[in-house]
Amino acid sequence: MTGTDRPLVSVLMPYYNGREFMREAVQSILDQTYENIEIIVVDDASPNSQDAGYIVKLADELGLTLIRHATNKGIGHTMADAAEASHGDFIAELSQDDLYKPEKIERQMDELTKKELDAVYTAGDVLYQDRRELTSRDTAKTKKIIEAGAAAERLKLQNLTCISIQGLLAKRSVFERDIIPIWREYLLDDWPVNIRLFERYKVGFMENPLWTSRAHGKNTSEGIWRWLGPQIEVIARMAPEPLQTEAIGNRLSSMARRLYKQQGDSEDIIRLAFAGLMLTESRQQYTKAKRVLGKIHSGRRKAIADSKAKQLQSILGSAQEENKHPLPTGTDWRNLGKNIADIVRTHKDGRKLHEIGRAFSSLAGNIQAKGGPPSQIIRAALAALMLMNDWHDEIIAVSLLCSVPIEDRNELIRRKKKILRTRSRPTLRSIFGG
After folding, report:
1. pLDDT digits over 183-210, tens only?
2. Which range marks the domain in which residue 310 is found?
């Protein structure tokens, strides 16, 4: 079968101020051993005139299909526009600073055809600017999860490291039915796609790394705050209801760990880790948060812990009473992530966590107004208390907690309070018993 006899594969490339690595990325597609490929590039309104001009010249030189947005639409709409402009029977994606290995598409097409798959992922590795470092990415573990049919449920709690949309090749029908609509609706372009594919389709995974992610300052030091809202949106909308608070707690604890690695000791990290502990009931996630808190200056950690623990003690000593404050109900599971994304974008660092706490307080109020599970009300309100630092707003979360029946709230609050008041790093036994 000659190159033109083989099915056309479209490779979608988003572009935004990315001339530094773009030629190398495109060349990695042109160097594929699979011959029948088209490349669709969408410039999402690059504000830098040199970058905007560069991609026009590159597209003309290399025969790329180029779409240019007049205004910035974001990654989801950019990818959807690229897919709708493509003509391939199969579609893949590559970021402007990543690379394909020469045999990627050919080997994926062979795998997809041989096993009659709808889509196939491949593992990747990492290329640093100053050194090359291959990572296993837990490929064997990922393959085992997929083969056990557990990928969709695992992905609803947290993204699997080895499953990246950069390593995906799928039938056009899969894109048209599910991927493009998700790109139009969600803030993230990868995680919700991964969940949907494993829910609905026959999906394969290749352990050998066939693409390379370039880790550099632009995509490793930024985004911790930026992607919090989009990540929470995926959890809040796609995770099964009893596990939403658990998965969000995991995300906050993970963010605390990443911020600590970036900036060291800070009050924000303490409050994030405490909020994660309020939401989670997992020993594993508790251990991760405990490690971060153990690195924080003990005096700073104790001051915040004592203050928050006093609030919880006052709730434990209160009888159940009707909420005297208007229920904040503007945030629900569906819009929690987008509300947090708006907060991150519009508020300065000193105010972000407090406003995110208000969003969790509003979520707790919404759950209560709809007759939701008391445990979710309690955990969301407790997270709000940990994140907020203004009594005028904290009193609303306290009032919400006091309105929950004592038999539903006190055991959980007492256990969470023990986490805060333990002066040294608390043991799992002291928190969970046994």
Report:
1. 999 999 999 999 999 999 999 999 999 9
2. 228-432
